[in-house]
Amino acid sequence: MTIQEKYWDDAQEGDECISPEYTVTKERILAYADLTGDHTPVHVDEAYANASHFGCLVAHGLFGLSIADGLKTQSEFRFLPGMSLGWTWDFVLPIKVNDVLHVKFRVGAMRPSNSKPGWGIVVLPSELVNQKGEVVQRGEHRLMIPRRPQA
After folding, report:
1. pLDDT class for 1, splitting at 50, 70, 90?
2. 17: burial class by Cβ within 10 Å (0-12, 13-18, 19+)?
3. Can you give the pTM of this predicted structure?
4. Cα Rg of the chain, angstroms
5. Which CATH number fits domain 8-146: 3.10.129.10, 3.30.70.1070, 1.10.10.60, 3.30.2380.10?
6. Which residue of 9, 80, 86, 135 lies most exposed, with the fewest beta carbons within 10 A?
7. What whole-number distance in Å separates Cα of residue 114 and Cα of residue 126?
């Protein structure tokens, strides 16, 4: 599959995309805990997690956001590298071992950058969805993307 990265000018409000899938495993949750140093028991201790209100090991909230961002970069709708301006993100449901996740996102608001000529701002409303079709996380990613060079 050949993916052509898009300039800001190549997008239109309402463009949509669904990412490839990602399977959550216990090993990936533990690796994330090691990477971040967050060894909260509900993420790494099965006995503790099983006795918790979740009833099982759950992934870190930021694990989900990280996966969502990574899945967007693997999607057919991909922008040229730009600059992340920030996230607004909600953790809706727990992410559990063996969940199969994908991201649904669309191009929301767009505007030329006021501070950087040659760049545009785009807002990507996004949902991280599990194999049951449940939204486990949702929010928006704001990006600054290069505009197509003028000939």
Report:
1. low
2. middle
3. 0.93
4. 17
5. 3.10.129.10
6. 86
7. 25
Average pLDDT over residues 34-53: 98
Dmax (CA) for the chain in angstroms is 63
pLDDT at 144 over 90: yes
Name the band, by pLDDT with cuts 50, 70 and 90, for residue 2.
low
**Tokens for 51?**
């006795």
